[in-house]
Amino acid sequence: MKNTKLAKPVAGKTFHKYAKSASSFWSASDFDTSFKVGSNLDFTKLAACQRAIANFVNIVTGKQIPVVFQTNNSSYTDGTTVTIGTKLEDANFDSAVGLALHEGSHIAYTDFTLLRRWNNHGSNIISNTKFAHICTDELGVEQTDTALNIIKNLLNWIEDRRIDYKVYTIAPGYRMYYESMYNKYFNDKIIDKALLVGEKCEETWDDYLFHIINFTNSNRQLRALKQLQLVWNTIDLKNIHRLTNTTDVLMLAIEVYKIINPEVIVKKLEDISDMFDKNGLGDSEPGDGNSGDGVEFNDGESSDDEDSESESTESTGNSPISKLSDNDLKKLLDAVSKQQDFINGVQKKAGKLTNAQSSLVNALRESGTETRIVDTESGGKHDGKVTTVVIKKLNTGVITAMPSLFINGAADYIKDPSSTNNHRSRKIEENQEAIMRGIILGKQLGNKLQLRNSDRTLKTTRLVSGKVDRRLISQLGYDNVNIFHRIVTDKFKNYFIHISIDASGSMSCGNKLTNALISAVAIAQAASMTTGIRVQISLRGTDDLQGKEMRCITVYAYDSAVDKMSKIKNIFKYLDTYGCTPEGIAFKSIEKDIKADAKGDELIFINYSDGGPTNVHGCGYYYNGVMFTKRVVDNMKATGFNVISYYISDGKPYQSEVDNFRTMYGVDSQFIRPDNMLDVAKTINNKFLEVAK
């Protein structure tokens, strides 16, 4: 824009000079704006995108404003929620973020009470609002609905400028999103062309609004209409920050209405006179019904019928011949309609979700689900980058929305525990029995670990230095100068234990998963009875999550830092096996998270698994699961992880399986029954002693 501080977000030609997209500044290789997997949507990426946009809105506004995907044809800011469409690929992403920021800023800064019902009387909403009463007070007479809607359009547009300027100046890091939004809605080439060739230059409200809306366009023509320069001066965009609230904006909109309205009235009277002359009615006798007598204006505003007549006259030839082609006129009509929708807050947003898809995306978002890229390539021509999914918080929403990861029918059971299904009920009961057994064993283990809660204090007296021992001061008279003491307190280190359970299909054979759960729950229970031990439990497997590609899926089921043991009692009964064994790929996807969560405490990583790792979609041509897992585990050890890896087996394992297991985990491989807590306690205690050295 010329001569205003708003030049960059609205000039329309600066955005593409910066980068391919604004998201390129913060998104790494593990995030892109391609949300399609074949013909399906990537719901994990959509959830991550939704969370990112919500974070942007919350940062800019300072408020926790919900951002949701539309699930029907309605998509607008209702004063509490920002709605976005699902078609966010590439170029659409930045403009969608800009629009979300724009709408979120309205929620934060716009007074929506102006347009709420003033009282419960009357049939029309706009005429019974605080907005309408202010207009009446300022203009001295009650306004028609047509006049109120015109003022409302002016109010909306000026309020947009006030809000956008405010955010654009206080949050410069988000400017590129605003520029992209303006490019989409206000910098259409056909708008530029229409302004330059002198289109829409009749003294009508429609044409005035067209030019006012495009004041932000550098090709604006302030002489196109009689009062346009005065309107420009009155709005004074470069000092739009002088308007501190929505009421200030309304008063300015009314002033603009006062400036333009007389010119529009004169134009309408001229149109009516021209119409009479063309039909040979100009010399009719007064009172014969053809002279125009009886045409009344309320505060200069015509009735709805007169508006229709005026528009009809213009469409039949009173307007000057357009300088645009028929095709350009159609494009202009579409562009103007898009601008009007923007001003009225009813932007058409492409793409929507079904109710089931919306539930899935919400569950993914609320559970902190993220996609991570794991590079499995060790050589060769193929890429080898695997997309993994990490569900950071297990809750009933995740179980309901992602049933393939849990006991078949668990979602139905959650909704109605009385629903009958013998197989499902039996499986849930078996899990519940295992959990209760784990809790009992954990209490036994916890009683042994409670010694950690006691500090050992050693006081040494009669020293030549240290703190004065008051009991020995009296001995100074006997030439005893050794009256000092020192107290040494030994405390146990804090430990962070992450338990990763193989939840692949083979773990469903016999009691493999059950035994792993018993052991993991026992450790969690024991840790809850002591101080200084934090326990996380995760499960890993593969699933397509309603897509076409099998992915490594890791679910964080429990974290003692935020969860109570009641969560294990209430939710672990729904856990089940899913897919194949991603092993090292899963470890790599959460390695950094585990390290960050440990916060410098001694870190112990406990693994339960029953076999060798398999390929996952995207693995490199030369991918070897055993050797890749070995590299990942070796790296974990080198960066501070202390590893214990339990081999789960119902019988005597094949020697090849044992060899592979030892290759992956080395001396930290353990071949015991994990439900035997004496052996588990012994191996964990040995690891504690090893770490303490």
Overall description:
This protein has 693 residues and is an alpha/beta fold. It has helices spanning 7-11, 43-61, 91-109, 130-139, 145-170, 175-185, 189-197, 205-213, 228-235, 246-278, 304-318, 326-343, 355-366, 396-401, 410-415, 422-449, 512-528, 565-571, 584-598, 625-638, 655-665, 677-692, and strands spanning 36-37, 40-41, 67-69, 82-84, 370-375, 385-391, 456-463, 467-468, 484-490, 495-502, 533-543, 551-559, 602-609, 641-647, 669-670.
SSE blueprint:
Elements: H1 7-11, E1 36-37, E2 40-41, H2 43-61, E3 67-69, E4 82-84, H3 91-109, H4 130-139, H5 145-170, H6 175-185, H7 189-197, H8 205-213, H9 228-235, H10 246-278, H11 304-318, H12 326-343, H13 355-366, E5 370-375, E6 385-391, H14 396-401, H15 410-415, H16 422-449, E7 456-463, E8 467-468, E9 484-490, E10 495-502, H17 512-528, E11 533-543, E12 551-559, H18 565-571, H19 584-598, E13 602-609, H20 625-638, E14 641-647, H21 655-665, E15 669-670, H22 677-692
Parallel strand pairs: 3-4, 6-12, 10-11, 10-13, 13-14, 14-15
Antiparallel strand pairs: 1-2, 5-6, 7-9, 8-9, 11-12
Short description:
The protein is an alpha/beta fold.
Major sheet summary line: 8 strands, mixed
| Molecular shape | elongated
* Number of H- or I-type helical stretches: 22
Beta-strand portion reads 5-15%
Unreliable residue runs? 1-19, 275-319
Average predicted local confidence, pLDDT: 76
Integer-rounded radius of gyration = 36 Å
**How many DSSP E strands?**
15
* Fraction of residues in H or I helices: 40-55%
Structural class: alpha/beta
Q: What is the distance, rounded to the nearest whole angstrom, between the alpha carbons of the first and last residues?
A: 69 Å
- Spatially, the strands of the biggest sheet line up as 5-6-12-11-10-13-14-15
